[in-house]
Design a protein that fits this description.
Layout lengths: L1 H12 L10 H4 L4 H29 L3 H14 L4 H13 L3 H14 L4 H13 L3 H14 L4 H13 L3 H17 L3 H16 L9 H4 L3 H6 L1
Helix pairs in contact: 3-4, 3-5, 4-5, 5-6, 6-7, 7-8, 7-9, 8-9, 9-10, 10-11
């Protein structure tokens, strides 16, 4: 995710002054208005990034409403910042605003459709709203973008089990367990092992995973 953030910054800042085609020889041909506009846009983006990180910090320390306020400030300065919509969606989910979270995830995907974490979050939010088929479609897309994404396998397994596909659920959960073990994420691995046992012994409606909540942890988000 850190690489993606840098890419976004590079793409946004890569206008006029930062373009490889602009050099000292042709810089004089750029109007003062364009230069000032470029500098202003860069300044707004830098401030938006500051608010973005302040939002992450507030969320991490439990100030969810404060985090949303910081994200709102960032979006007022830079309305096409996909990560901000993504993180604001996480905060909205945390406050129980599931439809608001979905709206933010949709916007983030419209701006960057190639980040698996967003599909994973939208997927388990859809699950909680009762849209199990939509949830599975999102987990499928997350796994298409990142086949080694254990949270997406775990969450898809829970949704499949809720739909009555116990065999598919166990297959997904076992894949998630193997990936967590390979990544040396022992607590996650153990939770999935427990889920597998519960899936084998319980009805679909009685199974509930905490795994869909795990991915809200910002440390986990940064790893994807």
């Amino acid at each position: 995710m850190k690489k993606w953030r840098l890419t976004i910054t590079t793409l946004i800042l890569g206008t006029i002054l930062y373009s490889p085609s602009v050099c000292a020889k042709n810089l004089a041909n750029i109007s003062d208005f364009r230069i000032k506009s470029s500098l202003l846009a860069q300044s707004d983006l830098k401030d938006a990034i500051v608010y973005f990180h302040q939002g992450i910090n507030r969320h991490t320390f439990g100030d969810i409403k404060g985090a949303i306020e910081e994200y709102n400030k960032a979006l007022r300065l830079h309305p096409n910042f996909p990560e901000v919509y993504y993180k604001r969606g996480i905060s909205r989910y945390k406050l129980g605003d599931l439809k608001g979270a979905i709206a933010d995830y949709n916007k983030a995907i419209s701006l960057n459709a190639n980040y698996p974490g967003i599909y994973n979050h939208r997927g388990f939010t859809r699950h909680d709203l009762g849209d199990l088929k939509g949830a599975i479609a999102d987990f499928n897309q997350a796994l298409l973008l990142n086949p080694n994404f254990p949270e997406a396998y775990q969450n898809r397994g829970v949704s499949r089990n809720k739909l009555g596909d116990k065999k598919g659920a166990i297959t997904d959960l076992k894949t998630a367990a193997n990936l967590f073990q390979q990544q040396k994420r022992i607590s996650n691995y153990q939770e999935v092992i427990d889920l597998i046992k519960k899936t084998e012994n319980r009805s679909p409606t009685s199974l509930r995973s905490r795994g869909s909540r795990y991915y809200i942890n910002y440390n986990q988000v940064e790893k994807s």
